[in-house]
Hints:
- By secondary structure, the chain is an alpha+beta fold.
- Helix content is 48%, strand content 13%.
Amino acid sequence: MKDFLLELRSEEIPARMQAGARAEIEKLFRREMDAAGVAMGEVTVWSTPRRLALIARGLPSETQAVSEEAKGPPVGAPDQAVDGFCRKNNVTRGQLEVREVKGRETYFAVIDTPGRAVRDVLAEAIPAIIRDFAWPKSMRWGAASISTESMRWVRPLSGIVALLGDEVVECEVHGVTSGAVTLGHRFHHSGDITIGDADDYAVKLRAAHVIVDHEERAALIRKGAAQVASEAGLSLVEDEGLVVENAGLTEWPIPLLGQFEEDFLSVPPETIQLTARVNQKYFVCEDAQGRLANAFICTANIEAADGGAAIVDGNRKVLAARLSDARFFWEVDQKKTLAQHAEGLKRITFHEKLGTVADKVERVAKLARWLVEEGIVTDSPLPGGEGPGVGVPTSQASNTHPQPLPLREGASLADTAQLADWAEQAARLCKADLVTEMVGEFPELQGLMGGYYARAEGLPEAIADAIRDHYKPVGQGDEVPTAPVTVAVSLADKLDTLVGFFFIDEKPTGSKDPFALRRAALGVLELLNRNGLRLSFWEAITRSLAGITRQVLSETSSDTEYEAHVSAQRKVFDALPAFFADRLKVQQREAGVRHDLIDAVFALGGEDDLVRLLARVHALQSFMETEDGRNLLAGYKRAANILKKEGFDQKPSPLEGRGLGEGASGGGEGQPLPPTPSPEGEGETSDMPHTGEEDPLAMVDDPDMKEVIAAKMAERTANSLSYTPEPAEKALMDALDTAGPQAATAVQEERFADAMSALASLRAPIDDFFENVTVNDENKTKRSVRLGLLARFRDAVHQVADFGKIEG
C-alpha cells in the first residue's frame, strides 16, 4: 500500500472559493478512483492561497482484474442487433459465448479487464480532475487563451506535484508537467522544495514558512488575535467568518494590533465594524465596558523585521480613509430628517405590479395602526412581563374577532392611541434609510442606520427601535422582537409582502423563492407565537388586501379589471392560508412536534388563530404520550372503521370552514372574502341559514344551563329508545353525556388539557362497550342506535382533533 500526494499550485485562489475547491477536488478524485476500482483509505485535503493539496492513504500498486458478463440478443436475432451488442461491449462475434436461457440459446459477452498499475490510473485521473474542476469563476491565460477550447482554472496553473509513494506520477496539463518540486512562502523562502513523499509534504513546507492545513492557520489566527487584543487590555470581537477568510488569505498568518483616531468613534459602531470587516478584513476590539475601541487587528502574511510596525501603519492609513468616508456619509445623511429621506422612496420601484416602496410603506403604516387599534398588539405586558399584549377573543369559537385585552393598570385609551400613532409613524419611516448615503454604501446596515438616524433626530425610542428591528426575524434562530411598536411594524411589513406577492401570483415554486416569502411566513409565525398574538389570518389577509385594492383599483377601473382583481383575491384566500400551514408544519416538526398530530388538528379546519392552534397541538402531543391517549386512539380507530364499513358517514365538523390548511378558503369561487360575523358573535355568521325546524332545547346557548340541558337531552334520548340498553351501552351513553359537553366547554375556553382529560374518561366505557355489546345486532333499531352512539363518540373526540390522522 502506498500514499498518494497531489498538489495543484496556482496564483492566489480567492479565500471565498477555497472551501468549495477542497470539496470539489476530493469529489473528483473519488469519482476517478471509484471508476477504476481503486480502493483507498483516508483522504485529506488542504488549501492555501496558492495551492490545493490532497493526500490519499493506502492505495494499492495495481487494480484487481475484473471479469464482467453482459447478456445479449438470442441466437437467430437480426445481424444488426448482434453487431450493435458487440460494438457496445467492444467484442467481436467470435468472442461471444452461447448459453441456454429459459430453453433458448442466447449470446453473452464476457469482458475480462486485467489489472492495471495504479500509477497509470492516476496519470489519467489528474488531467481529468483538472479539466472537470468546477470553479465559481475561472479564467484562460497565455497564448492558448485565444481559443475558447483552452483549459480554464481559477488562476493560472503553475505547478503539479504528483507522488505515489516516492515515485512521480507523470502527466501533463496545459503545458504544466507533474513532478516532485514545489515552492515555499513567496517572501520567506526562495528556491525549489523537493518533496520525498506524502509524509514529509507538510513538514518541508512548514520549514519554508507555509502552513498547508487551513484549520491550523484558522486556529493560529483565532488565538493570536485574542492574545494581541488582551495584551492591549482589550477583548476581541469574535467573528468566525473573518477567521476563515483571513486563513484563506495567508500562508503564514501573524495577527497585528493597530489603532485609529478616536474621533471616528462618533460614527455608529456597526459602521466601523462593517467597514473594517468588509473592506479590509480586520477584526475590531471592545474595551472593558463592552464599547467599541479605537483598535483593529489585521493579519499579516509575513514575519516583519520591525515587528510589523510598518504593516500596521499602512493598514491604519487605509482604514482611516474608509472611516473618513463613513463619517462623511453619517454627517451628510443627518442633514435631512427621515421623513425627508422617505420622499425619495417614491423613486424606488418595489415591484412593477405593487408600486413603489413609498406605496408599500403607506400600506404597512395603515396595517400596523390597525394591529394596534384592534388590540392585536397592545402595550399590556405578557405574563412574566415580556413582550406586547395580546388580543383575547370574546368568544373562543374559531372564527370570531380578537378583542382588545383590558389595558394594564394605570393605562388609558390615550396610551393605545399613542401606541397606534407610534406604530404608524415608525412604519412610514422604516424604509427611509434605503435612500441614505450610508446604506447605499453598506446595504447590510438597512434598518440599523434608520434607528440611529431616528435617535439622532430625537424621535421616541420605541419608534427608533421599531425602525431598527422591523426586518427581524430574518432567519432561523434570529432574535424575535417583543416591543409592541416593533412587533406591529414587523408583522405588518411581512404580511404586506406575503399578501402582495400572492396577489400578483408570484408564489414560491419548488426550490425557487426569489422574494424570500418562505422566510417572511416563518417570520410572521415566530412573531405571533413568541408574543402570543391572537391574530386571525383571514382578517389580516382581508385587511392587507384592502390596502392593495385601494392602490390598484380606481374609479376609472373597468369591469374587466374589477373581475380580475376579485379573481386574484380569491387566489390569495385559497393559497396563502395553506402556505402558512405548510410553513407551520415545517417549523413545528423542527421543534420536535409530531407531524401526524399537526395534521390531526389541521384536519378539523376552521382554525386560523396560531396561538390557539399550537396550544391544541401541544396538549394533544402530551395526551398521546399517556396510556389513556394511546388506548383512546385504539378505541377511536375501531369505532371509525366500523362506521366507515357500515357507511355511517361523518357529518361536517363544526370547525370546518375558514382556517389554515387545505380547504381553508371555505367560500369557494362565489365568496372571495370571509363572511361577516353577526352582531351576536358566538361563532355565528350573518349568512347562516335558519330552517325553523331546530330543536329549541338544542338552540339554547346559555353557559349556565349547559349541564341541565345535557341531562334533559340525555333523558329524552333514553326515553325514546324502544329497548332497554345493555349496561355497557348505557354506561357509554352516560359517559358521552358528561364528557362531550365537558370537552366542548374546555375547547371553547381553550383549556385543551382539560378537554383531553374529559376525553380520557371515555377510555374505559368505550373499551367495555366493544367487549360486551354487539354493534351490528340483527335488530335494525339496536344497530342504528349503537352506530349512532359510536358516531357520538367519534364526534366527541373530533372536538379536539381528528384522531384518524394520528399514527399508531
